[in-house]
Amino acid sequence: MEAFRIPVGGFRLRRPARPVYVVGDAGGFADALTGEGIYSALESGRLAGEVAVDVACGRARHDAYYRRLWGTVLCDTALSYWLARPFYRDVDRGIAVLGSPLVWRPLIEGAARGATLGESLLKSAAYLVRSWARNLPGPCSGATSVSPVR
Questions:
Q1: Which domain does 81 fall in, by range?
Q2: Residues 33 and 73 reside in one and the same domain
């Protein structure tokens, strides 16, 4: 068994002049922080299929694939690539940052909701509030309830 480098950095791809759709690991679409690549592989494959059909029907040109990739896969690929650099430069500090509830709560909440890294960061305040609200004592927890002031 051999180890291989995880292919990252696909956001730097240039649009080819010919109709070529690079997907998954071939495109370097893995997440640089976690190494996860299934979402990007499936999403890039789905987009390639959709664009291929649109091209065959005369509704699009092959370069539409690369524009659509920026709407889903490539934004997160670029974001994780740039976040991975300082994280892996000082892993102890990176772990300490991830240990902060202000960081890990929104990321876990986002992951549980199926959000991408970018979506989790954009919605981090809302995810943080939802996460904390779930941990508040409910009416059946034995805590005294307070009536709202009117």
A1: 1-86
A2: yes
Measured CA to CA, the distance from residue 36 to residue 29 in angstroms comes to: 9
Q: Are 27 and 69 within one domain?
A: yes
Query: How many degrees, rounded to 5, is the angle at CA 14 between CA 9 and CA 17?
Result: 150
Q: Which residue has the tokens 């002049």?
A: 17
**Helix, strand, or coil (residue 55):** helix
Domain assignment present for residue 60? The answer is yes
Local confidence pLDDT in tens for the 150 residues of the chain: 787 788 888 888 888 888 889 999 999 999 998 888 999 999 999 999 999 999 999 999 988 999 999 988 999 999 999 999 999 999 999 999 989 988 888 888 888 888 888 888 888 888 888 888 877 776 665 555 454 554
Decide: pTM greater than 0.90.
Answer: no
**Residue 22 φ/ψ, nearest 5 degrees:** -90, 130
Please indicate, yes or no, if residue 145 is contained in any of the structural domains.
Answer: no
Work out how many domains the chain is built from and give that number.
2
Q: Are residues 94 and 128 in the same domain?
A: yes
Q: In the numeric block, which tokens belong to residue 80?
A: 């994780």
